[in-house]
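Internal tracking record. Fields below are filled automatically when a chain is submitted to the structure queue. Please do not edit lines marked as system-generated. If the sequence contains nonstandard residues, flag them in the REMARKS field before resubmitting.
Queue: standard
Priority: normal
Entity type: single polypeptide chain
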Amino acid sequence: MSNPENDLEAQLNALRTDGENAIRSADTLDRLEELRVNYLGKKGQLSVLLGSMGKLSAEERPKIGAAANTVKEALQSSLDKQRTALEAAKIQAQLQAETLDVTMPGIYERPQGRIHPLNGIIDRALDIFVGMGYTVAQGPEMETDYYNFEALNTPADHPARDMQDTFYLPDGNLLRTQTSCVQIRYMEAEEPPIRIVAPGRVYRKDDVDATHSAVFHQIELLAIDEGLTFTDLKGTIKEFLTSIFGDLPIRFRASYFPFTEPSAEVDLQWNGRWLEVMGCGMVDPNVLNAVGYDPEVYTGFAAGFGVERFAMVLHQMDDIRRLYTSDLRFLKQF
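SYSTEM-GENERATED OUTPUT FOLLOWS
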């Protein structure tokens, strides 16, 4: 007749062996959870075996109970060990799947930025003038009446003020209508000889249309030294325009600006017709007096042009407003 204790102990040992083998063979966390429920769950194989302990004597139960605990701990240990291994394998597989090799070329081409046509003209012009020995100068966009008009030989009752519709501010200041005021500020701070080029944004109350804007950009140059003549001015402008447009015919027409005397408009023969591109002249002695320069010792010349006009000519644009709308379909051309 078989001994119930020996039979139960043998079954526990067999359960442990089968369970450990099954657990080691589990290849997914889901499968491992199924084995845990099968062996250690409330209705699992270990619970079923322990249900037979009622047939044992009081002396046999402690021994079988200790053996059952040993089997339970062994199975739980195997479960924990296999779970740790499977979780590590899962993480490793995920890392391998998501690894980015930074040495490989990119799959997707990101769109590259481009130089705005206005900035392109400004950069080209500054490169040319800096190559001639000019220094780039900047000034505030909000100006006083003195720097924008009076110091430039344009007093309050001067009719030339009617040539520029101005944005005045409540405190009496204004938005500069020209970058010429940078010249005054620079001459007040520096002694001759000077050669500067001043790019910047200016403001006038123009009606906006295909060729006019209330906000636009200018570049002006100024040279002050002993013995400068109109010939120096013409040579400088010719060199600049040739660098921008190529070797094309240029002419100077007599004109008027309050801060230069004599003054001239500069025309360029472009596509078979004369095109006005710049204004220039010799610095008026009154301007030199305003900044403390002796006009009997020093002479100088100044010139300026609108950046938008150059951009429209060079890039054959039909509407100045295209420069300000930030339309990528338009800007991608440049």
